[in-house]
Amino acid sequence: MARGRGEREDYEKNPGLLSLLQVLSFLVVFVAGVVIGLATSAHINRHFGSQTEIYSFINHFSSNKPNEEENCTIVQGCEKVDCLSMETFLQPKNLTHDMSDDELFWRASMVPGKVEFPFERVPKVAFMFLSRGPLPMMPLWERFFQGHDKFFSIYVHVLPGYTLNVSSTSPFYGRQIPSQLVSWGTVTLVDAERRLLSNALLDFSNQRFVLLSESCIPVYNFPTVYKYLIGSNHSFVESYDDPGRYGRGRYSRKMLPEIELYQWRKGSQWFELSRTLAIYIVSETKYYTLFSRYCLPACYPDEHYMPTYFNMFHGSLNSNRTVTWVDWSLGGPHPATYGGDNITEDFVRSIRNSGALCQYNSEMTSICYLFARKFAPSALEPLLELASSVMEF
């Protein structure tokens, strides 16, 4: 206690010493505050700086995503596409999608309630190729299509995993649809046909739909085929009553009462449909289910489903004939195949004009077949040589 009183007395006697101590204390506190402030500031800068870098990196990464959807805008290659635009909705250019068959058929079955089109519609013919793989007649078809881009669409169904080897300038480029396995003589053939129709129906400009194989050829030029199909009042699905073992003999009584024997029909698989009948086929479920259950080998759904269904419900819209020529004269389950040695000018002209007449709208015509099959790859070169002089393309 004595020492405390003595120190206080010393400060009172020397006021200058007291002032000096106060100044020194202030300086110590000030310097300490500055040091603490600088350290804190540096830490904050480092934290926010790293956050900014991370944010910039994320932005940069996101902006370079190849298919980023932003306001429904997607990037396909180098082209930005508005997936909600009328053009994309009416005429889809990219055939790749992940829809199931049920989803695809449902979407394809939609019909506008408004009759008038809100765009200038040029009706097109959809050429649908059903193939196991390669299209050996492709050069002939490319020549057939040349110069008529606005009037046709192409759709190709091949076995899953197969990719057509075509140049980017070919009309077949990018025209493969999502496909599934197909087995000859089973309902999977009808599934593939409905899959082709559904993909083609997504383009509202497609008015007519023709099914072709890899062995099919055109026997007339494009303007003739286009005018013939677009101007027809009927579809071309062969449908006739065959009383023999390969017709009525394939009927199953399990289809009663929905389908009776007298309604059973047979016809060529290779059809041509109007848009109206195409929509009926992809949206129909009841009779397709019956055929998938009860039309089993040696009953072939692709030869009976459409001929029977159209005969029962839409006969007035069908011509009951096909526009694809096939030679069944040899008998057996498959038609005759023609190779290079069989191709002559007279042979092709005989297909174009067989001498028989057929009904077209309300008149008779000598032009009954627009396409023909079955042609081997060796037939390509002689057919190309005759294309200009005989088939006129």
Automatic annotation (TrEMBL):
Topology relative to the membrane: Single-pass type II membrane protein
Gene Ontology MF term list: glycosyltransferase activity
Compartments (UniProt record): Membrane
Protein's organism: Prunus persica
Cellular component GO terms, alphabetical: membrane
Name this polypeptide is given: Glycosyl transferase
Lineage: Eukaryota, Viridiplantae, Streptophyta, Embryophyta, Tracheophyta
PANTHER family: CORE-2/I-BRANCHING BETA-1,6-N-ACETYLGLUCOSAMINYLTRANSFERASE FAMILY PROTEIN-RELATED, OS08G0110400 PROTEIN
Assigned keywords, A-Z: Glycoprotein, Glycosyltransferase, Membrane, Transferase, Transmembrane, Transmembrane helix
Residue ranges crossing the lipid bilayer per the database entry: 20-39
